[in-house]
Write a structure and sequence with these properties.
The complex is a heterodimer of chains A (528) and B (98). Chain A has 528 residues and is an all-alpha fold. Chain A contains 20 helices and no strands. Chain B is mainly α and 98 residues long. Chain B is 84% helix and 0% strand. The longest helix of chain B has 40 residues. Classes of the chains: A mainly alpha (528), B mainly alpha (98).
Chain lengths: 528, 98
């Protein structure tokens, strides 16, 4: 039992619960619940986006990858970051100008609500489900290791806290949990990287030299390794990472919390800067872990002769490199702090996911389709709160079921689906006037189904998870193919659509275009 | 009001210029990123070459450089859009509202 970790984690929980209580008193309308009343500033939203996006997977996973294979870790960092300029250039301001609470608002602006919101809700819930399972399993394992809490209790704690934040405090509480987490994570990572660099007199060359001397792969860790084997896989993975960001529902939702396009743009700039800075820190942390941990047997499971393989025998797996490094740098107190930060990191991400899922159920499925816009705001928000509780229960259940499964592919799958379903439908509906309901729905579903199918048949799942001898689809990342299918599907079916509805939808584009560029009528999100 | 904006002679030129900037910057981001990825796939040896007498390699500089460039491009676009373009758009909307 790590006492400092438990104390610091309880402090974090106490602070966030006080904030949630305060937020609950401020949530009066649907706009407050879904979008914090549009009252978040660009700077705050930039921090919150960073807090929503920087998962434990990117903190522990990427520093662990750098620890094990050096340069290859940077490939993921770069891929996760370059989606942000795309979000800014193509999506952010139009999203803010056209939507209110969910990205489906934007797509359904001139297309027919029924089919479009059904598609968007399915896209949202599928992405949320895979992302959430990966986070829950990761959280359970991490907490079991750091705090000694049994796996099931750990998963239940995470589930209970995220439901409390979302169901009682809505977007206001979620935003502040994400802001606090971003500050803690950036602060902790900065301190770690600073201490690593300080131990090499702030010479990067000295750090790299020490790392290549210690690491069994030597100089090879400073050049591309085995992660990228063939160009098709590399491009496909790159596309998923890049455009997946622009299709993640919990990220898109954050843009409705600011008052206008100006603030939306500003928040992407701050978020990109913070996330980029963070990824550079994880790189330094990974190399620091090589130099400070690899020759210290305390962090490895040694064989009877005292020998160990530094690449495979780390206690808790290589994902724990950053956590062990915190101990090597700042002793048990700093280890406790980083453990608590890792827990907080997971909580902020799963809260964002839960809110996105609950909004898809209450705003897209219930209010727009089931009640056809005749429900009251109060009922809609109540449905959203109930949905958050339901998502929490399902997440705990799935976290329990998948405990011993390999869930590493699920974050990649979530990105691939976001890039192949949500992103093409959203982008085409706002930039191409020819997009019709039929085209968007057919293309979106094709993208979704093809992405899921190809991942199921890929080497990572078909062979490594299901245990079949040979993969039916040769690549682990489907995005190159599934995105092409989605965009072609939307284009061709829209072109062939000769219905009267399609004519009306094409004719309505010009007005939508003017609104998306000027923000006329944008008051909608904060009118209460 | 929407009709008035459409008839404003400044409206289409301004949004077209902003859209062109956005697509050019997107294309640059794509080119730099996929250029980096393709170098990793086809020329790992080049990226593994050390710089000068140090141990730091071209690949590390290229990776970190891509991250910094992505941040710089977003900063450039936000500056342009939030000042020049927004001032013009605000003027057009104000004229349409009057």
């Amino acid at each position: 039992m790590n006492i400092p970790a438990v104390v610091m984690f309880l402090m974090f929980v106490a602070v966030t619960l006080v904030i949630t209580r305060w937020a609950a008193g401020r949530v009066r309308s649907a706009s407050d619940f879904y979008a914090a009343g549009g009252g978040i500033t660009g700077t705050q939203n930039g921090l919150a986006i960073a807090g929503d996006y920087m998962s434990a997977a990117s903190f522990l996973g990427i520093s662990g990858l750098v620890f094990a294979s050096g340069f290859d870790g940077i490939l993921y960092s770069v891929g996760f970051l370059v989606g942000w300029p795309i979000v800014l250039f193509l999506i952010a301001e139009r999203l803010r100008n056209l939507g209110r609470y969910t990205f489906a608002d934007v797509v359904a602006y001139r297309l027919e609500a029924g089919p479009i919101r059904t598609l968007s809700a399915i896209g949202t819930l599928t992405v949320v489900a895979f992302y959430l399972i990966a986070q829950m399993v990761g959280a359970g394992k991490l907490i079991e290791l750091l705090f000694g809490l049994p796996y099931l209790y750990a998963v239940m704690t995470v589930g209970a806290l995220m439901v409390t934040y979302v169901a009682t405090g809505g977007m206001v509480a979620t935003t502040w949990v994400q802001i606090i987490k971003a500050c803690l994570l950036l602060g902790g990572a900065t301190f770690m990287a600073f201490m690593v660099l300080a131990s090499f007199g702030f010479s990067l060359n000295a750090m790299f030299r020490a790392a290549t001397d210690i690491h069994p792969d030597g100089l090879a860790i400073l050049s591309p390794g085995k992660l990228v084997s063939d160009p098709i896989s590399a491009i496909s993975l790159g596309l998923a990472l890049m455009f997946g960001t622009a299709g993640l529902p919990h990220i898109l939702m954050r843009f409705f919390t600011v008052k206008d396009a100006k603030a939306a743009r500003k928040s992407v700039f701050y978020a990109t800067g913070l996330i980029g800075y963070f990824y550079i820190l994880t790189f330094i942390i990974g190399f620091g872990a090589i130099t400070l941990l690899m020759s210290d047997p305390a962090y490895f499971r040694a064989g009877p002769d005292g020998a160990y393989d530094p690449l495979t025998a780390m206690i808790g797996g290589t994902n724990m490199a950053a956590v062990h490094l915190s101990n090597a740098i700042g002793g048990s107190l700093f280890l406790g702090f980083i453990s608590a930060v890792a827990f907080a990191t997971i909580l902020a991400v799963v809260a964002g996911l839960t809110l996105a899922g609950a909004s898809a159920i209450s705003h897209d499925l219930y209010a727009s389709i089931f009640a056809k816009g005749r429900s009251s705001e109060a009922t809609e928000v109540r449905i959203s709160r109930i949905s958050a509780v339901a998502i929490g229960i399902v997440a705990i259940f799935l976290g329990y079921v998948f405990e011993n499964q390999n869930v590493a592919f699920m974050v990649g799958l979530a990105f691939a689906i976001a890039a192949s379903c949500n992103f093409p439908v959203l982008l085409m509906s706002i930039v191409w006037g020819g997009t019709t309901t039929r085209g968007a729905v057919v293309g979106g579903f094709l993208g979704l189904v093809s992405a899921v199918t190809m991942v199921l048949l890929s080497p990572a799942v078909w062979v490594n998870t299901f245990g079949f001898p040979k993969a039916l689809f040769p690549y682990d990342s489907p995005a190159l193919f599934s995105m092409t299918i989605a965009f072609l599907g939307i284009y061709i079916v829209s072109k062939l659509d000769r219905s009267a509805r399609a004519e009306r939808e094409r004719a309505a584009f010009e007005d939508q275009f003017v609104r998306s560029e000027t923000g006329i009528g944008i008051g909608a999100a904060s009118s209460h | 009001m929407i009709e008035k904006v459409k008839r404003d002679p400044e409206f289409y030129p301004v949004v077209r210029r902003r859209a062109r900037l956005a697509w050019v910057l997107s294309a640059m981001t794509l080119a730099v990123y996929f250029g980096f990825i393709l170098l990793v796939a086809f020329a790992p040896g080049l990226l593994g070459r050390p710089i000068g007498d140090g141990t730091m390699t071209i690949g590390i500089v290229a990776g970190v450089g891509t991250i910094i460039l992505a941040v710089a491009l977003t900063g450039f676009y936000v500056r342009r859009a939030n000042s020049d373009f927004d001032a013009k758009i605000d003027g057009i909307v104000a004229r349409a509202a009057s």
